[in-house]
Amino acid sequence: MSVNQQAHAGPPYGQPQPGYQGYQQPAYGGQSLPGVPQSQYGAYNGPMPGYQQPVPPQGSLRAPPTSGAPPPASGASHPSGHLAYSQFEHGDVQNGIPASAAPMQRPPAPQPFLPGSAPTPVSQISTFQQYGPPPGSVQQLRNHMAGMTIGGTAASAPPPAGLGYGVAPSSYPPTTGAPRPPAMPGPPLPGQTVPAPPSSQPNHVSSPPPPPPPSTMAGLHPGPPMSGLHGPPPPTHPPQPGYQMQQNGSFGQMRGPQPNYGGAYPGAPNYGSPPGPPPPPKRLDPDSIPSPQLNELPPQQKPRHRIDPDAIPSPIQVIEDDRNNRGSEPFVTGVRGQVPPLVTTNFLVKDQGNASPRYIRCTSYNIPCTSDMAKQSQVPLAAVIKPLAALPPEETLPYLVDHGESGPVRCNRCKAYMCPFMQFIEGGRRFQCCFCSCVTEVPPHYFQHLDHTGKRVDYYDRPELSLGSYEFLATVDYCKNNKFPSPPAFIFMIDVSYNAVKSGLVRLICEELKSLLDYLPREGNMEESAIRVGFVTYNKVLHFYNVKSSLAQPQMMVVSDVADMFVPLLDGFLVNVNESRTVIASLLDQIPEMFADTRETETVFAPVIQAGLEALKAAECAGKLFIFHTSLPIAEAPGKLKNRDDRKLINTDKEKTLFQPQTSFYNNLAKDCVAQGCCVDLFLFPNQYLDVATLGVVPYQTGGSIYKYAYFQLETDQYRFLNDLRRDVQKEVGFDAVMRVRTSTGIRATDFFGAFYMSNTTDVEMAGLDCDKTITVEFKHDDKLSEDSGALLQCALLYTSCAGQRRLRIHNLSLNCCTQLADLYRNCETDTLINYLAKYAYRGVLSSPVKTVRDALINQCAQILACYRKNCASPSSAGQLILPECMKLLPVYLNCVLKSDVLQPGPEATTDDRAYIRQLVTSMDVAETNVFFYPRLLPLTKADVDSDSLPAAIRNSEERLSKGDIYLLENGLNIFVWVGVSVQQSLIQNLFGVSSFSQISNALSTLPVLENPFSKKVRSIVDMLQGQRSRYMKLIIVKQEDKLEMLFKHFLVEDKSLSGGASYVDFLCHMHKEIRQLLS
Ligand SMILES: [Zn+2]
After folding, report:
1. Global pTM?
2. Model pLDDT for residues 922-939, shown as the tens digit of each residue
3. What 3-state DSSP class applies to 555?
4. What residues flank ion ligand 1 with Cβ within 5 A?
5. What is the SS3 string spanning 639-666?
6. Cα 436 to ligand 1 centre (Å)
7. What percent of the chain has pLDDT over 70?
């Protein structure tokens, strides 16, 4: 019996584990700026209770040096003889095949949607066995598949009680993380509140309309009825009639007059009022407004009978059910192949041997054993990995393990790191690798006896033997040039051209930096941040500043030869904030004055990045550039750009050029930046096209972030910008990072999506990687898998911490494997699937016409669902649409992806908006893509002002809105507050402080702070939502029938969009047709 044959029975959550003493938890941003949601940092605020006993560590565990300087290298003999810089040196073996001999076949993007590459024979078989209970029987599955007939031929059974939307009186806890600590006192922020803890108090929920009387139906498509799966606890009898198609209008008791489904949208009745002006208002915030539209999809069969929207799978219901079923118990990770709760469910995680879903989520937790099965199902096998994810305060950060000069214990062959799945043999003297089966000697210092079950007796004392996620302190072998890194530097580079100065931006940035510099990321219990800072301003030329502490005043040095950028000073450019405090303050006071009268309108861009890069090179450190930029760089300089925006290219074969950079100059620059560990964060303030597709190349490939504030206005936008800046500066970030994903024999990582650079087929390189960034990895078979062994992933991230400490963060995840397709479909996660599909499609637009990409998406999903129908569903009429329980939302979510601005731009989406969104989505985690594609819509007027809970969300459709209510819609980038025309005057008074609907100003960028329960409640909801998102959302007030309503309606993603994007119902019909064609 070996350790690997035991289910992980980890120690009780939260209790001290002997042997972890002295492992200090890294702390980041132990302080927080006022106004910045602290939730992301809460967990980093100090040592973990229970692990800090001053007992000397036993065995080979040692406390890390507090200085951040690991033990000196004594020409250490690396066990494997490897002394190269990376964990991934040449000669490494992946899955038993020498990397150099068998390079990964990285297919050019985009690839066909068929998973394709020929399997490579690999003979090693990993030997651990299945954890946990075996998958349920086929019969259980069948029980899950009680479909409901939507078609007209069905009996007229009403929908089962409790399945309608909005019925469950459950609480609506925050979706991510737990209650946030209150922010520190400081500059007044409207509505600063503590987000609500979960509560069981029922919300005000509009009751669903009673089941409408059955109506005679002719069906969607000539004849065939549709059926779908729906609802929570599956009935234990065979498919039964349930959701009836209804004539439109038969379900509308609760709602106002409805738009004519399927009719001409713009002219549809608009709550009984005349339709609003058709064209979108001028200058809507082009920041990220997806605007679905549809030109060719689906082939509409215009006049036809309608399906009751309540009868098709509801995202709200699925989310609600998962919360109710899985929100109360912690998710314990000891069992292989467990599907975690949805990202919309608030839950705690106990690490008992597998990485938390906050770090890794998979499209399926049960992988087909063979490549043929995988191809047949068309279900992509992918993991969405967020290696440095922030955790809620209740959860434990990965422990830092120090093996001293010998470094982490690794498999001799594939170099996998010691993990809970390695199997110790021969009394503990050797271990067999769970990834490649190679047997490796246990180094003497790491030897430990095994107990009678084959487990090492120090099993619970060692994070790397009992936990899914942990860190190793890296030795000098893992450092560039075999030298421990210096602490990183931050360089602030401010555009001081005319527009930047005139808008007040330069002054705003300088004012903010004066206080923000005190909140640079810190590590552990360090007194101050180790990060040094530097300052550059620029227009057509660059100005460097010497802010050495010994100077009385800062000194400026101008570099006007931008063709060959160099840094004119070394000493005094990068400084410690505390030492140079007065000089820095003086500089930040002077900059706005110095350029107050500038007439320079032209800017350079590439030389700015080059300057930052050269400065970091000279200082021999990694770091981050914060560039604040306003315009297309047309000044004569390397990387100069021209305005090549051309909307006429939309829907042509040349549309892809809008997403491609106009010069390869920036790709080469990005490569240099990555080599130096120079990460670029770009804050854009455009008043016109500035070519985000090109300017974004370096931020994107260095693992940085892009923020865009179109038509920036100080009054309305400064708050959002400052919040983003504060969070961006303070958040946890690793530098000079390399990530590799190892897999057990049979599958391998073949494709990667995200903000990074790759110089080979396996190593994901990032100059910087922050806590919000994800990398999506796709896997393909190269051999058969076995149900017994399952499949394993190990993600290893080598990075430099904010204090300059070199570390390895390891995440392990074990998955099940199946020989029955039903097991695959039963263990899928649609939210993750959509994350992958969106990223795949968004990359596809770089090389294929957008229509081709859309068609491929539809086709792949139809194949996924057709395969289920053919192989897993119980026999029934071909006219029935039967969806797998875990994928019943695939059609509605897929439709949202298809209607998004990147794939089908609305009239107001600019080329820059589309490029911006494309890049944003590529780094999003599953929770972010979920709310981005299917926004959250909350009826504010139903909120219980006495409780901490949120009102129950409703579906994104106009017919769900009542003109007597106020709603909030958020998608992670924007928050809309929609006010119906008939809202009670008292509510308007309480929320907006004005006496009538007509007086509400939609120029508001925040809600007024009013002392009444409704105002407080709404502001607390807004603050809670802001705290859950990685970017500060723009608040937009929308009055019903006002111009801006058109913008808002783009987000009602279940409806037909203004420009023709399919409604959910229509799209479902279309999918059904596609599936039937595949089956026939
Ligand atoms: Zn190995």
Report:
1. 0.76
2. 999 999 999 999 999 999
3. strand
4. 411, 413-414, 416, 433, 435-436, 438
5. CCCCCCCCHHHCCCCCHHHHCCCCCCHH
6. 4
7. 72
